[in-house]
């Protein structure tokens, strides 16, 4: 295993320990509202601090891009961090959230960790080295038809200007797939594509830390991921479409009809 990936795993587990201890005492957490339907807690900040310290202790010259702390430092290596993806789920006791850590090297994601502490699911990937779930090699599903596929999604909760477009997309995908699910943690949704639990996924208005680690997992597991134009600008636009090669093509075509 790549030493940088090992360090990211160590950081994710340290953050998970803080998060899981706090999960039994949610009523006493300090909660702030960043935007409508967008919350941050002292746990998000503590988990992020633990991740950043672990990474910079090992690689002090690396840069950081994190959800709560923003961008820090300049380097050809940048760690992209979401310390608690699925904060709303966490606050309501819904066990669907994760820690997401990715390493970008010269513009490409090279290492990825998505850790679900509730199920002890550790998703990892190194560029060119495949994707893994708890040390077991994973691949996207063999589903070829969107009509047979389970599709994940996320509602646009801060970009309400896209809500009407999204509703039309959702209606069409519901009618053309075997089912649609909205679990509430995009990084984990992308990991589910990688291990075959979902056959396709789309969401609008995401942030880089929602996407970075999951995008490498999807690619290393044999899936495809693009923006709504079928291009690689999803980290910039925040609009993501992913899936098995066959389902991806059908899902993208369905969504593009409503752009």
From TrEMBL:
Give binding positions for Mg(2+).
67, 82, 84-85, 210
Q: What is its EC number?
A: 3.1.3.25
The processes (GO biological process) annotated in the record are: inositol metabolic process; phosphatidylinositol phosphate biosynthetic process; signal transduction
Instruction: For this UniProt record, give its keywords in alphabetical order, as a comma-separated list.
Output: Hydrolase, Magnesium, Metal-binding
Record's superkingdom? Bacteria
Write down the InterPro entries for this protein, in alphabetical order: IMPase (IPR033942), Inositol_monoP_metal-BS (IPR020583), Inositol_monophosphatase-like (IPR000760), Inositol_monophosphatase_CS (IPR020550), Inositol_monophosphatase_SuhB (IPR022337)
Required cofactor(s): Mg(2+)
For whether the record's keyword set contains Magnesium, the answer is yes
Q: What's its top-level EC category?
A: hydrolase
- Show the Gene3D superfamilies listed in the entry: 3.40.190.80, Fructose-1,6-Bisphosphatase, subunit A, domain 1 (3.30.540.10)
Q: Which reaction does it catalyse?
A: a myo-inositol phosphate + H2O = myo-inositol + phosphate
Does the UniProt entry include the keyword Hydrolase? yes
Q: Name one GO molecular function term.
A: inositol monophosphate 1-phosphatase activity
PROSITE patterns assigned: IMP_1 (PS00629), IMP_2 (PS00630)
Q: Please state which protein family the record places this protein in.
A: Belongs to the inositol monophosphatase superfamily.
> What is this protein's name?
Inositol-1-monophosphatase
Q: Which organism is it from?
A: Chitinimonas arctica
